[in-house]
Write a structure and sequence with these properties.
The complex is a heterodimer. By secondary structure, chain A is an all-alpha fold. Chain A is built from 34 helices and 2 strands. Helices cover 73% and strands 2% of the residues of chain A. Chain B has one domain. Classes of the chains: A mainly alpha, B mainly alpha.
Chain lengths: 789, 184
């Protein structure tokens, strides 16, 4: 499984080589892997529906980290969506993006990389593995929504999607650690088998929920999803309808067997899911952009799925898995239809499209198939799922069952209404509107659309097929009575309450559509008392303001202040520890070698002189003298390595200082030390304060050095075995052995820091030039060129 | 016999030949023979010494960090002597951009840190190869030398970057500032 995921990523990395030659071939090659994934899933059907197929790759045994994967029924359904629909959408993209579209190379590679990350996410059985892929999909989404970053709408939508989902992701990471630590395992299958019961686990579960709710665009986090429609339509179809937004729902589905009976789990899921379903449906009724209409439809359906997956009820979970599959199979073709409509007419506005149905009947039929499945019309997959959902909550009964059943009924009515609105908006003849004159859509666009739409019809007509997928998944939930144990998906359950619900939903929904003008009037009258989008904007703006204020207070731009804060911190924190816990070592001699005396004297004299000099150049030379003096002390104490490094660094520092001095005044005082004007000289009090702080800090460091050297509790590490083992590391030089063997990881980390610091310095020094020359200096091409060298 | 014009005292150390020049130095009055000649002779020597430090680092004081610093100081000497050239091509026709050198160093270090994984060993594991070279004797090669080489390259890159930003960058800045002041 890991190999499959990695293959996606590797091919995605190599894809730009192909797309340089041919854009279409790149999408074609990209489509092969998801299709192969689907085939792989079907081959392992038996294992997936039975015990589940497991694979563990130990990544770091010492840290107990491993990549755990497991293919089960839920994973298999998601593979149909990620692999099957992925292949269709990539094929569709080959024609959607033009032959020489500039966006095609980026999109083909990113879509495939996303498919790999998503595959890893749905197969992950280890919470940390899941988290890694979870964030990878967020990043892919950010890049795909942002596109080239040329348009403001794309950038804003991308940032919003990233902020919201990554916020949720971070909360989830914390939750994962809480749950994993209290369960003693990060394995989802093990956690679900023995769910931890304690306050920490409850908090963790709630935090994981935050991740799931943000990713699946549940209220009040939902606005990022409609905003993300700024992405090209294939991206929206794949990420924001068929696969990525399902991640939250799938996570809920994975954990529900262990937590569904906990109030902290099901109450927020049911409540927010229902609210999301209603808000999404209501908003979809008023959108005039077909794509945004579908986006709110997706929000609504995700709420529906959330309620179902969190129900913890056997029939409800059967309904959940069926709806999960159905939603992918109807929402993806609907998006593809919008893409085609947009391509052939140049618009997706309801108010500009008229008579398209008669011009392009083939497209219209595919759209009707998909929309009917969404509305829950019999013989389509959506109907099976919705029937099961009604049955679940009607059967459950009680206050919770009935509230949810009636809530879902209301949501379904809205679903029917916006499905009808979508078909009407895209294809109907509208009086008073000039019929559009569409181009002929390419077969490459139509075939994938039709394939997905027909799949919904075929599966809807053969309930046992879907039943075979859903039953093993729902088997994790014990059946409470015979009805639940015997329930199976079917087109005809006899005259029952769920069937009545379906009929009511269809009838009232169509009635709502007929009376759409009045509904729009009601919508206008209600206005927007509470807007989640506005809430997001207020939060982000507030964060920015707070950051500006904090930065303004903390980063005053004065070197003495920074230094003062640093020194005070050093004095206060380790200082207290030193005073309370420090013991003066008894066997500390004052001088161990006579050579230390002159060297120490040089350092002390240079340091004292440094406080009195007025010329910068002299000061730099004195600093150098101090450094060389310390290097000399290293030599005397028998540390040639340290001394060598100290001398070299000191020399280089001196050179760097001299370079900078060329641009600075020769004297510290602006007037060369001759000024008598009181305003130019620092005030006496300030100088005194600085002097006291510097003295205290210096004394502290000296004392701490002596005390700490005597504070050894463990036997010294550098003795005996350590030195004896140095040759084993291939080194006779213990210091070198420490640097490149025992502490090699530190060395790699340190040089990384060094690189970042050097790059930062270079860009700061070089950037100020351009900042000075023009106001908007930061990101000019010449600046970039110069920083790069 | 032709009599040559006596060279004014202030110009006696201005070299005329090109051979001492490490880079391009158009202004004659900015040149000093002593420094240029010293740089000419010292530069290769110091570079060799830096490589010596790099290799010997496993057995004696030295290693990638001091080696890289010594090599960097050689470039500093050359920069001061030759002046007037972009940081990247200080003292050579062979242009390496400092950021590339830094990145290359980090890449070498990280790749050699991860390489043992490919052979089933833990990250950063090292191996030692001992072989005999005629006339030289027994030579031990330790795989962790690769990390040291990465450090060495990175440090040279850092120093060159320093020359580029603080050296020529500031120099050009000063010139431009002077030009701007004189301009209007």
């Amino acid at each position: 499984m890991l190999a499959l995921v990695v293959a996606h990523l590797v091919v995605a990395a190599l894809l730009p080589l192909v797309s340089r030659r041919s854009r279409r071939a790149a999408f074609g090659i990209a489509a092969v892997l998801p299709a192969a994934t689907l085939v792989w899933g079907v081959v392992h059907l038996g294992a997936a529906l039975g015990p589940g197929l497991e694979e563990t790759v130990t990544w770091s045994a010492a840290l107990d980290l491993e990549l755990g994967f497991r293919l089960d029924a839920l994973g298999l359904v998601m593979i149909v969506l990620v692999g099957g629909l992925g292949a269709l959408i990539l094929a569709y993209s080959a024609w959607y993006f033009g032959k020489d579209s500039r966006d095609a190379p980026r999109n083909s590679a990113l879509l495939l990389a996303f498919a790999g990350a998503m595959l890893g996410l749905v197969l992950a059985d280890d919470l940390l593995t899941l988290y890694v892929f979870w964030e990878l999909t967020s990043i892919a989404s950010f890049l795909l929504v942002g596109q080239g970053g040329l348009h403001r709408a794309n950038r804003r939508a991308a940032v919003q999607a990233l902020l919201v989902t990554v916020f949720g992701g971070l909360a989830m990471l914390l939750g994962i650690v809480f749950v994993g630590e209290s369960a003693g395992s990060y394995r989802i299958s093990e956690i679900v088998a023995a769910p931890p019961v304690c306050g920490l686990a409850a908090t963790g579960v709630a935090l994981i929920l935050v991740g799931a709710l943000t990713k699946s665009a549940q209220a009040p986090f939902h606005p990022w999803l409609p905003a993300a429609m700024a992405a090209p339509t294939p991206v929206s179809a794949y990420l924001h309808a068929a696969s990525m937004v399902k991640a939250g729902v799938v996570l809920v589905g994975r954990l529900s067997p262990g937590f569904a009976d906990r109030a902290e789990w099901w109450v927020p899921i049911a409540l927010l899911g229902l609210v999301t379903m209603l808000i999404g449906g209501w908003r979809a009724l008023h959108e005039t952009d077909l794509k945004r209409l579908l986006a709110f439809g997706t929000v609504s359906q995700l709420g529906f799925l959330m309620v179902l997956f969190g129900s913890g009820d056997r029939i409800g979970e059967i309904a959940a898995l069926t709806m999960l599959l159905a939603h992918g199979l109807f929402k993806a073709p609907l998006f593809m239809v919008v893409g085609i409509v947009d391509k052939v007419t140049g618009t997706r506005e309801v108010g500009a499209l008229s008579g398209l149905g008669r011009r392009l009947p083939g497209l219209a039929v595919a759209a009707v198939l998909a929309a009917a499945s969404m509305a829950g019309v019999p013989f389509l997959l959506g109907f099976l799922g919705k029937e099961a959902a009604f049955e679940a909550f009607v059967h459950q009964g009680g206050a919770r069952g009935w509230v949810l059943a009636l809530g879902l009924l209301t949501g379904s009515i809205l679903t029917v209404a916006y499905s009808a609105r979508f078909l009407w908006g895209a294809f109907a003849d509208k009086p008073g509107l000039e019929p559009v004159d569409p181009k002929r859509p390419a077969p490459g666009l139509l075939v994938p659309t039709w394939t997905a739409a027909v799949a919904g019809l075929v599966l809807g007509c053969i309930p046992p097929l879907v039943n075979a997928l859903a039953q093993p998944y729902a088997a994790a939930y014990p059946a409470t009575d015979a009805t639940e144990a015997d329930y199976h998906l079917a087109l005809w359950h006899g005259l029952s309450l769920p069937l009545l619900f379906s009929a009511v939903a269809l009838a009232v929904g169509l009635a709502l559509h007929v009376g759409r003008d009045r509904i729009t009037g009601l919508h206008r009258a209600l206005g927007h008392p509470l807007s989640a989008q506005r809430g997001y904007e207020v939060v982000v703006a507030g964060l920015e303001r707070a950051a500006t204020q904090v930065t303004g207070r903390v980063q005053v731009g004065s070197l003495p202040v920074y230094l003062g804060v640093l020194l005070c911190t050093v004095l206060v924190l380790p200082g207290i520890a030193l005073i309370t816990g420090g013991v003066w070592p008894r066997d500390q001699s004052l001088v161990s070698s006579l050579l230390q005396l002159p060297l120490g004297l040089i350092v002390v004299v240079a340091a004292l002189a440094l406080t009195r000099v007025r010329r910068r150049f002299t000061a730099v030379l004195l600093v150098g003298a101090i450094g060389y003096g310390i290097g000399g002390l290293f030599v005397v104490d028998g540390a040639p390595d340290l001394a060598l490094a100290q001398f070299l660094v000191e020399t280089l520092t001196l050179v760097a200082f001299v370079f900078v001095l060329r641009r600075l005044p020769a004297h510290f005082d602006p007037d060369g030390g001759t000024a008598t004007a009181p305003g130019n000289r620092p005030r006496r009090g300030v100088e005194m304060r600085k002097a006291v702080l510097a003295t205290v800090a210096g004394v502290f460091v000296a004392v701490a050095g002596v005390v700490l050297s005597g504070a050894r509790q463990q036997p010294p590490a550098a003795s005996g075995e350590f030195v004896a083992r140095a040759p084993e590391a291939g080194a006779d030089n213990v210091i070198a052995a420490i640097l490149v063997d025992f502490r090699a990881l530190d060395t790699v980390g340190e040089i990384t820091v060094l690189l970042i610091a050097a790059a930062g310095t270079a860009s700061l020094v070089l950037a100020t030039r351009f900042d000075r020359r023009r106001k908007a200096g930061g990101g000019t091409p010449e600046h970039e060129k110069e920083v790069l060298g | 016999m032709t009599t040559r014009e006596p060279v004014p005292f202030t110009q006696w150390d201005e070299p005329e030949g090109e051979w001492t020049l490490p880079g391009a130095c158009p202004v004659r009055s900015n040149r000093t023979l002593m420094l240029e000649a010293a740089a000419r002779f010292l530069f290769p020597t110091v570079l060799v010494f830096s490589v010596y430090l790099l290799i010997v680092g496993h057995y004696a004081p030295g290693g990638g960090f001091p080696g890289g610093l010594v090599a960097g100081l050689a470039f500093v000497l050359r920069y001061i002597a030759g002046g007037e050239s972009e940081g990247a091509e200080i003292g050579s026709r062979f242009v390496v951009r400092p950021p590339v050198l830094m990145g290359l160093g980090l890449l070498v270090a990280v790749v050699s840190a991860l390489a043992p994984v490919a052979f089933g060993a833990p990250v950063l594991a090292s191996a030692k190869v001992t072989f005999e070279i005629p006339l030289v004797g027994t030579v031990d090669l330790v795989s962790s030398l690769l990390i040291d080489i990465g450090v060495y390259l990175l440090i040279i890159g850092v120093v060159l970057d320093l020359l580029r930003s603080l050296g020529s960058g500031i120099e050009r800045d000063a010139r431009e500032a002077a030009g701007e002041e004189a301009g209007p």
